[in-house]
Amino acid sequence: MPDTFAYLYLHALTGLHPGTGTAIGTVDLPVQRERHTQWPMIPGSTLKGVLRDAMRQKLDDTSLFTTFGPESPDADKHAGAFSITDARILAFPVRSLNGVFAWVTCPATLSRYKRDLNLSKVKVNWKIPSIEADALIVDKSPLLIDAEQIILEEFDFTCKGGAQDIADFIADNAIRDDATRETFKRNLVIVHDDQFTYFVRYATEVNTRIALNYETKTVKTGALFNQEFLPAESLFYALAMISNSRNPDSKATASKIFCWVKGMLPDILQVGGDETIGKGFCAVKLNGGNNG
């Protein structure tokens, strides 16, 4: 078992493309999805590479190799002390008739999130909700168009209260920006699992990309394609597990390694493809460091 657990939260500030390569269909470059749920995810290998690159200029080689493992030619010498899971979707932005947009989640997502929090004995002050109406909202939600109704995309939902504790917990733990944190506390909606799956599958952005031949001003061969992006404001989390050093040249403890990562973690990381067109910029927050 790891000596310390932590939670890395990623809040997309721009469209996000954790790609899965090319595909046959209307979308040439889809985003990565879980096989069993079809919910979007960010591979742990991607996150570890991004974190390693962010720390490269801030840690000496011994500390870097202790944390993330040695370079590929020496990979058999020892494993890194810092491990991280795939990032899982926690809340997904969906346009709303009132209040601009909602962050949407569901009982299945919250159940998995709470199970992961329990690994590090994080105190959770909410229960997995049972949705008797179409959806649960927070107190005095700006999304309401009348006393009990909201409209997300083309669907109308009859709502009841009951999401406030969950909205407060997620906002306080996952979101860096004060204004966004307060907006999240007002705009969270908990829908049924199947409705959530519909939104994360079909409410993404699909952009058409082209490259032109400079001389003829026509599309270059093979340079017209459709690319899927997760919308800005998408919220993910990943479980990080930190062990004491496995590097014979370092005696760093798990707590020390956690402090290295947390202290040197940038406020914003670029994740996924298309950095040069402003995609994939995420506000990040690392919480935890509790003993498992």
Tell me the distance between the termini. Answer: 8 Å
Unreliable stretches covering 5 or more consecutive residues: none
Give the fraction of residues assigned to helices: 25-40%
Overall radius of gyration: 21 Å
What's the tally of helices? 7
Order of helices and strands: EEHHEEEHEEEHHEHEEEHEE
Q: What is the count of β-strands?
A: 14
Mean pLDDT: 93
Structural class: alpha+beta
Q: Which terms would index this structure?
A:
292 residues; alpha+beta; 2 domains; 12-stranded mixed beta sheet; two-stranded antiparallel ribbon; 26% helix; 27% strand; globular
Structural notes for this entry:
- This protein is α+β, with helices and mostly antiparallel strands.
- It has two domains: 1-18 and 44-85 and 234-292; 87-203, no CATH class.
- The chain contains seven helices and 14 strands.
- It has helices spanning 44-55, 61-68, 107-119, 164-174, 178-187, 193-202, 254-264; strands spanning 4-12, 41-42, 82-84, 87-95, 101-105, 135-137, 149-152, 155-161, 188-191, 205-209, 225-229, 235-242, 268-270, 281-291.
- Strands 1, 2, 3, 4, 5, 6, 7, 8, 9, 12, 13 and 14 form a twelve-stranded mixed beta sheet that branches. Strands 10-11 form a two-stranded antiparallel sheet.
- A hairpin with a 5-residue loop joins strand 4 (87-95) and strand 5.
- Helix 4 runs antiparallel to helix 5 (178-187).
